[in-house]
């Protein structure tokens, strides 16, 4: 059973009921939820506009995976496809950007898979500040029934720096090859899985064909920028319901210090509305680089859990 976004109109995971129509007005067909799909009542990702790229906005075509936010283009292995979309980002900033597999089957089973993920360094519970630290965290927390075949090692593929980490499940005979690189305050990972090590070597070599555009004109990523010394004006959001779940928010601050874009990783609609209303009134000190103001991207955690205090 899978969790999947659907094209149905939903409000916090519930179907919106429209006024009763006469028989002549009623539609002749009704969209049904596909079998094996559950509509989950919960928080969701959203943003303040549809034109500014967000990390989860990548698309898989017949030949490439393209992500405008990361400015990344990855050429798919020949005859590999995406059959299922990933879930929305978690409240710790973990994204499943794409899930790929060969279009053909071998003896009724898939002989390889690729998952492209991103970990948001603003909200990651690992405390990692770069790709090596994040991969070392994974290596340190590997379960005892897995065996490390390559410790985290810094390599270069196609002119891009990566950290490579390989491990295996001796019982299942499955190998995992992990490539991680830092892009725009995220760690993007390519996680290849197969029993065929030759196939895995080919897939790793194929990452050299990835195109990663320069980020020179992208906002400067600064963790924990929303501090009293950087804020000139601040208005707190007013939550009437659902006050206890964490709400991670990425914001882009323009050169004048105003919030120009808001990206909610996980929020209920009424929470995103309250936070958006408040953030429109925030004013930051302009951030200077080489004496000139530049745009800033930062993360802010609103709300808190019932057992802890904190949040914005």
Walkthrough of the structure:
The chain is mainly β and 312 residues long. It has 2 domains: 157 residues, Mog1/PsbP, alpha/beta/alpha sandwich (Protein Transport Mog1p, Chain A, 3-Layer(aba) Sandwich), CATH 3.40.1000; 83 residues, 2-Layer Sandwich (TolA/TonB C-terminal domain), CATH 3.30.2420.10. Strands 7-8-9-13-12-11-10 form a 7-stranded antiparallel sheet, with helices on both faces. Strands 3-18-17-22-15 form a 5-stranded mixed sheet, covered by helices on one side. Strand 1 and strand 2 form a beta hairpin. The chain starts with 9 loop residues before the first strand and ends in a 10-residue tail after the last strand. The N terminus and C terminus are likely disordered.
Strand order of the largest sheet: 7-8-9-13-12-11-10
Which sequence of SSEs, written as H and E, runs from N to C?
Answer: EEEEEEEEEHEEEEHEEEEEHEEEE
Helical proportion? Answer: under 10%
CATH class of the largest domain: Alpha Beta
CATH superfamily of the largest domain: Mog1/PsbP, alpha/beta/alpha sandwich
Stated plainly, the CATH topology of the largest domain is called Protein Transport Mog1p, Chain A
Which stretches are low in confidence, meaning pLDDT under 50 for 5 or more residues running?
A: 1-29, 305-310
Shape: globular
State the end-to-end CA separation. Answer: 36 Å
The radius of gyration computed from the alpha-carbon positions, rounded to a whole number of angstroms, is: 22 Å
Major sheet details: 7 strands, antiparallel
Number of beta-strand segments:
22
Structural class: mainly beta
Portion in strands: 35-45%
Proper CATH architecture of the largest domain: 3-Layer(aba) Sandwich
Instruction: Give the total of domains.
Output: 2
Oligomer: single chain
The total of helices stands at 3
């Amino acid at each position: 059973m899978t969790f999947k976004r659907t094209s149905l109109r939903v409000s916090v995971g519930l179907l919106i009921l429209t006024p009763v129509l006469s028989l002549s007005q009623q539609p002749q067909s009704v969209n049904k939820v596909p079998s094996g799909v559950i509509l989950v009542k919960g928080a969701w990702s959203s943003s303040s506009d549809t034109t500014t790229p967000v990390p989860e906005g990548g698309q898989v075509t017949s030949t490439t995976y393209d992500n405008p936010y990361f400015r990344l283009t990855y050429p798919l292995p020949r005859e590999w496809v995406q059959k299922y979309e990933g879930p929305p980002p978690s409240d710790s900033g973990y994204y499943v950007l794409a899930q790929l597999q060969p279009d053909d089957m071998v003896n009724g089973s898939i002989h390889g898979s690729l998952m492209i993920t991103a970990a948001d360094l603003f909200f990651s519970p690992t405390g990692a500040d770069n790709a090596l630290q994040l991969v070392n965290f994974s290596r340190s927390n590997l379960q005892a029934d897995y065996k490390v075949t390559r410790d985290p090692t810094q390599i270069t593929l196609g002119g891009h720096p990566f950290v490579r980490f390989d491990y295996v499940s001796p019982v299942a005979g499955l190998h995992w090859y992990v490539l991680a690189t830092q892009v725009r305050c995220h760690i993007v990972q390519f996680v290849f899985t197969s029993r065929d090590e030759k196939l895995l070597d080919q897939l790793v070599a194929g990452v050299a064909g990835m195109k990663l555009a320069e980020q020179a004109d992208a906002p400067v990523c600064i963790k924990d920028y929303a501090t009293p010394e950087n804020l000139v004006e601040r208005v707190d959001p007013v939550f009437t319901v659902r006050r206890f779940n964490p709400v991670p928010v990425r914001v882009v601050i323009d050169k004048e210090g105003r919030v120009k874009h808001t990206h909610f990783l996980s929020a209920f609609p009424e929470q995103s509305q309250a936070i958006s209303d408040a953030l429109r009134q925030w004013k930051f000190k302009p951030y200077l680089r080489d004496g000139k103001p530049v745009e800033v991207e930062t993360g802010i955690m609103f709300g808190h859990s019932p057992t802890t205090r904190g949040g914005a």
